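Comment thread on ticket #2218

A.B. wrote:
> Attaching the input chain for the structure job we discussed in standup.
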Amino acid sequence: MRTDIVHPGAGELKYEIRAIVARAKEVEARGTPITWENIGDPVAKGEHPPEWLRDIVASAAREGATFAYSPTQGLDATREYIARERNLEGGIQITKNDILFYNGLGDSIAHLYGNLHPKARVIGPDPSYPTHSSHEAAHANAPHITYALDPTRGWEPDLVDLEAKLNAHPDIAGIVIINPDNPTGFVYPPETLRAIVALAKKYNLFIISDEIYSNLAYPDSRMQKLASVIGDVPGLALRGISKEFPWPGARCGWVEFYNRDKDENFNRYAQSLIEAKMLEVCSTTLPQYVIPTVMSAPRYYPYLAERIARYDERSRYAHQELSTVPGLIIHKARGAFYMSAVFMPARDDKKFVYDLLESTGVCVVPLSSGFNSRLTGFRFTLLEPNQATFEKTIATLKAAASVREHI
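C.D. wrote:
> Ran it. Output below, let me know if you need it in another format.
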């Protein structure tokens, strides 16, 4: 080309979670069955939405309105329902005008970073979910800036490290939290959330809280959403139905804006996101349309409770087995359906993961390259519905991690 057409940040777009699939397919073609523990797709793992939920979707699909565009920000009735439910939880109050729908949270995250001022940075956790870390790094054409989650303290954020980074990088404009966390399964305690909000207030920052798993927090997790503690600090929360219903193929998520009236610069940023969405017209109508009916159904939250109980039980089993491995740090998940194990001392986790795949067919994700982390280890899921298969997978991970040299 006579001029370079590649965005300077393109090299920062990495997604090991799916990149490993190509190698797994090669292994599978040689006759080794693959145990897919790399991607958090409940449906692909056999956890299909219940019949009553599918009936709601099927009925809605027969209505002509679901074939039309929605308003740019999303269907009025759905945004009103979400705002009403959010307000009943306490904390900051919002209206339908504070909600903006996207085609999944991947879409929203790309827009959040793509519409930031080119010099504005957003700091995120380490380990970090790659959709956040890659888009932020690509936006800035620089490595993603992170604060440490501490595996020796149950994955608690290192707030001293966070504040040191805020002082070292005056271009940081925002803080990302993922709550419940992917890849660790950690849930931020309320006092930790309040401390992060206090830092945002002190340094005049905004907060992004990715809460895609917020309704999949475990009973003893003390889960609180950002809206309950944010006070007058500008921020936004990301939510969606891909993991909850579960319906990942719907590609349906939304952003909730908080305290637009408290900071004119943040308000202009939020408005730029809405105007950018206008260029796309709107997000997919059908999944938006069914949200109020599904979430208000008497069976919905009992259904989620059943799923959560299964994840909790698998988390406890995995912790029981893997915590006995010398040199491996692991904590029970308190939300979502992931766990991460850390090698102490560090090992070449990418080699470990690819050797594991070649020799056993178990496909997990390395922490270092998969989650932009200073740590080495691996992430696996709690989605396997067959208990015998799940226990076999944990036994395979235990045996592999117990070998001091690479398998």
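A.B. wrote:
> Thanks. Noting for the ticket: The CA atoms of residues 17 and 38 lie 6 Å apart.
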